[in-house]
Design brief:
It is a single chain. This protein has helices at about 20-55, 70-80, 85-100, 105-110, 115-125, 135-155, 165-170, 175-205, 215-235, 235-250, 255-260, 270-295, 300-320, 325-330, 335-360, 375-380, 385-395, and strands spanning about 5, 160, 370-375, 410-415, 430, 435-440, 440-445. The chain is mainly alpha-helical. Among the domains are: about 135-360, no CATH class; about 370-445, no CATH class. The strands form three sheets. The chain has a three-stranded antiparallel beta sheet, with no helix packed on it. Strands 1-2 form a two-stranded antiparallel sheet. A two-stranded antiparallel sheet has the order 5-6. Helix 1 packs across helix 17 and helix 9 (about 215-235) runs parallel beside helix 13 (about 300-320). The longest helix is centred in the N-terminal third of the chain and has 37 residues, at about 20-55. The two termini are about 45 Å apart. It is a multi-pass membrane protein. It is found in: Membrane. This is Putative magnesium transporter NIPA8. GO terms for molecular function: magnesium ion transmembrane transporter activity.
Length: about 450
C-alpha cells in the first residue's frame, strides 16, 4: 500500500467532516439538477413560443401550445422567468460536489449522487402534476434504500495524498488489474453492440443501421450496452476531480506542505495531468451522452447512463484511492462485521442499478410524435411579443426569395416500439453572413400521466 498521511488541515479533520461532505454533496446535486431543469424548461419555452407564432400545435396539446394544463403552464412560466439563475445553480452545485470529495470517500458520494432521481420525482409531481407508475415508484424506493445501505456499510476513512502519492497510485496492482478488466470489457461490449447492428443491417438488406430495424427489447439491450461502455471511460473523471480537490485543500493549508515536506502541489506536473484528465473524461462523457440522446429516448437512456456512471465511478475511485482497503482487510480478518460490510456495500449498488432500470419505462412510447424543426432564430426572437409580430409579418414572406431563413416544417410520424425515426428530422439552416446555425427539436406529448418525457 502506498504510504499516505491522514488529513490534518487547520480546520476539523476529514473524519469529523464526514457528514458535512455527505450533506454538501446532496445539496450540490440538488442545486445542479434544479439548475439543469430550469435551463431546459426555458429553452423549451422559447421554442414552443416560436411554434405558437408559426401557428403550429403539438399532438395531444391540452392548451393548444405546450400540451399542458393552464395551471401547469403558469407554474412553468414562473420558473422559466428565473432562468438567469440556472447557471448560478449549476455552478454552485458542481462546486459543492467538488469540495465534498475532500472529506468523504468518493465511493460513498457516488451513491448519493442518485439524489438527482429524487429531485426529478419531486419536480415531476409538484410542477408537472404527473405521478410515476407503480413500477417507477418501486424503483425510487429501491434507490433510496440503496443510498441508506451504502451510507451505513460503506468506507468512512479518508486518506490524503500529495501529488507524488497520487502518481504512485496509478501503478498499484489493484488499479492496474481494474484498468485491464475495464479495457477487456469495453472491447467485449463494443463487439456485442456492433454485432447486433450488423445483424439488423443484413436482415433488412440496408446500407446503414437504423434503430427502427430492431425490436423494443433489442433497443433496450443496445441502450444497456451503450451506457456501460460509455460510463467505463467517463467515470475516471471522479478520480481526477477528487485528486484535484485534495490538492486544492493542501494549498489552502500553508502548514500542510511544510509538515509533509511535499512541496507546493501546483508546482507538480501531476496536478496539471489531473486537470487534463478531468477535462478529457468530461468531454468524452458529454459526447457520449449527446449521442445517446440523439439515438434513444431520453427518459429511457438517462437513468441507465446515470446508474452506469455512478457504479463505475464508485468502483474506480474506490480502487484507486484504496477506499475499499479497510473493508476487505476486515473481511480477510474473518470478522462478521467485515464480511457484512462488504456484502451490504455490494448489495447497495446492486439495488441502485435495479432501481434505475425500473425507473425506465417498459417500452418506448407509443403515442404520436410531433417532430417540429425550428431555427435558433425562431427560438430567440420569440422571447418578446414584438419578435412574434415580426415572425408573422415578415419571416414567411422572405423565405421564397432569400436563402437567409428556410421554412420550418412539421413532420408527424406514428411512433412504434423501437422506432426512433420520428425524432430524426431534416434540420433547416439559418444562414447569416458566414455563419450557419441549426437547431432541431422533437417534442413528444404523452397521452397519459405515466410518461417520463420530462427527464431532461
Amino acid at each position: 500500500m502506498v504510504g499516505v498521511s491522514s488529513l490534518s488541515f487547520g480546520w476539523p479533520s476529514a473524519e469529523a467532516w464526514y457528514w458535512h461532505g455527505v450533506l454538501m454533496n446532496v445539496v450540490g446535486t440538488v442545486l445542479y439538477t434544479v439548475g439543469c431543469h430550469v435551463y431546459s424548461w426555458r429553452r423549451r419555452a422559447a421554442i414552443r413560443s416560436a411554434q405558437e407564432a408559426r401557428g403550429i400545435q403539438g399532438v395531444g396539446a391540452e392548451d393548444g401550445v405546450s400540451g399542458r394544463s393552464p395551471e401547469t403552464k403558469g407554474t412553468l412560466e414562473v420558473i422559466c422567468s428565473l432562468w438567469p439563475i440556472s447557471w448560478i445553480l449549476i455552478a454552485l452545485g458542481l462546486s459543492a460536489c467538488f469540495f465534498s470529495f475532500r472529506s468523504t470517500p468518493a465511493s460513498v458520494l457516488c451513491a448519493f449522487s442518485t439524489i438527482q432521481f429524487m429531485t426529478f420525482l419531486v419536480f415531476r409531481s409538484a410542477v408537472h402534476k404527473r405521478h410515476p407508475s407503480r413500477r417507477s415508484l418501486f424503483g425510487y424506493v429501491l434507490i433510496t434504500l440503496a443510498m441508506c445501505i451504502v451510507l451505513s456499510a460503506g468506507p468512512t476513512h479518508v486518506q490524503n495524498y500529495h501529488a507524488s502519492e497520487l502518481a504512485a497510485l496509478v501503478g498499484s496492482s489493484a488499479f492496474v488489474s481494474y484498468m485491464l478488466c475495464a479495457s477487456s470489457l469495453t472491447v467485449f461490449l463494443w463487439q456485442w453492440y456492433a454485432s447486433i447492428k450488423q445483424r439488423a443491417v443484413r436482415e433488412h438488406e440496408a446500407s446503414r443501421f437504423e434503430f427502427h430495424m430492431v425490436s423494443a427489447g433489442t433497443t433496450r439491450k443496445l441502450m444497456v450496452l451503450y451506457s456501460v461502455r460509455a460510463a467505463i471511460w467517463g467515470s475516471p473523471a471522479v478520480i481526477f476531480a477528487k485528486g484535484l480537490s485534495l490538492l486544492l485543500f493542501q494549498e489552502l493549508d500553508p502548514g500542510y506542505t511544510a509538515a509533509e515536506n511535499s512541496g507546493n502541489p501546483w508546482k507538480s506536473p501531476v496536478t496539471y495531468l489531473f486537470i487534463v484528465g478531468l477535462v478529457t473524461c468530461a468531454l468524452h462523457w458529454a459526447r457520449r451522452v449527446a449521442r445517446a440522446l440523439r439515438n434513444f429516448e431520453a427518459f429511457m437512456i438517462v437513468p441507465l447512463l446515470t446508474a452506469s456512471f455512478l457504479l463505475f465511478s464508485a468502483i474506480s475511485s474506490g480502487i484507486y484511492f484504496q477506499e475499499f482497503h479497510a473493508l476487505f482487510e476486515a473481511e480477510r480478518a474473518a470478522t462478521i462485521s467485515g464480511a457484512l460490510s462488504v456484502s451490504l456495500f455490494s448489495f447497495g449498488f446492486i439495488l441502485l442499478v435495479v432501481g434505475a432500470y425500473l425507473i425506465c419505462p417498459r417500452r418506448p412510447s407509443h403515442h404520436p410524435f410531433a417532430s417540429v424543426t425550428v431555427t435558433m432564430l425562431d427560438a430567440f426572437t420569440s422571447l418578446t411579443e414584438q419578435a412574434k409580430e415580426n415572425i408573422h409579418s415578415s419571416s414567411f414572406a422572405s423565405t421564397t426569395d432569400e436563402p437567409a431563413l428556410e421554412m420550418i416544417h412539421l413532420d408527424r410520424k406514428e411512433s412504434v416500439p423501437g422506432d426512433h425515426s420520428a425524432r430524426n428530422v431534416v434540420r433547416p439552416s439559418m444562414k447569416h453572413g458566414s455563419h450557419e446555425m441549426t437547431e432541431s427539436l422533437a417534442l413528444s406529448h404523452a397521452s397519459s400521466g405515466d410518461s417520463d418525457d420530462e427527464m431532461l
